[in-house]
Structure formats: structure tokens, C-alpha cells
Amino acid sequence: MKVDREAVRELIGRSCLLMDEERYADYLGLCTDDYSYRVTAFSAELRKDMIWLELSRNDLGSMFDMLPEHVKPEGTFVRHANVCAIQANGGADRVHVTSTLTVYFTDLRGTSRLFAIGRYEDEVDVSGEEPRLKARDVRLETRALGTGSQIPL
Fold this sequence. Notes:
Blueprint: H1 5-20, H2 24-28, E1 31-43, E2 48-56, H3 57-66, E3 75-88, E4 94-107, E5 112-125, E6 132-140
Parallel strand pairs: 1-6
Antiparallel strand pairs: 1-2, 3-4, 4-5, 5-6
């Protein structure tokens, strides 16, 4: 089966746009039923990866539902992902996608700042009509996130 690489790239881009617009139900619509979401960062002090968040699709949906209850800085987040590699992974129906990630925050006065950098390591199911996210590991370089860090990246 030939993988539609452009459709995979569009999936990654669309996932960022939907998160930017806080359209969380639509974001989950891009995901398989067994989707998993994880945020990790390497600790030089501990010399190992730290798992900051690990959720199933249902748990992520519950977290999205609770976001209005959380303290959030006033402004908007913008995610910029650049797909670097699309590789076959575990058969003809899955690919592994590595993207660099930059997240910016703009406050209500229009001041923008870098919020976080890292990578998306995505598993994408390409067995159907449209590719769908099966797993996303957000591997952060930034470890000091501050206010707004409960917002999925």
C-alpha cells in the first residue's frame, strides 16, 4: 500500500490548527479510538526521560472538558510543526512521523513569546480513507513552561 505522504503532512498541520483554535472535539476526530497522548522531557539531572502526561483518547477528552476550569493566561497559543520524516512502522498500515515543534504564546496586548520547543513523534494509521493519529509523543526540550502548561501541546 502506497502512503499518501501529503495527506499525512496535512493531518499533522490540521492537528495543530485545531488545537490552536481550541477545537478539541474536532482534534479528537483526527484520532483513532485507541489513540494515546504523552508529553515527555529529558532530564539531564536525572539522566532519563520524565513522563509529564500520559493519557488515552478518553482521558484526553475528559481533560479537554476540564480546561475551562483551569487558570489560563489570556491570549492564544500557536503551534508550528514541520514534518521532517515519514517512515514505515510495523507494517503497511502505520507510519512514524517526526516533526519539529515550536509553540508561541501571544498575550492580549499582542506581545508574542516562545512558549516551548520540541518534537512530535507521531504514529499514524494509514489503513483507511484518511490518515488518523494513533499516538502522539510530545518530546519537549523546554522544561520551564510556567502558566498555561496544562494546555495540550
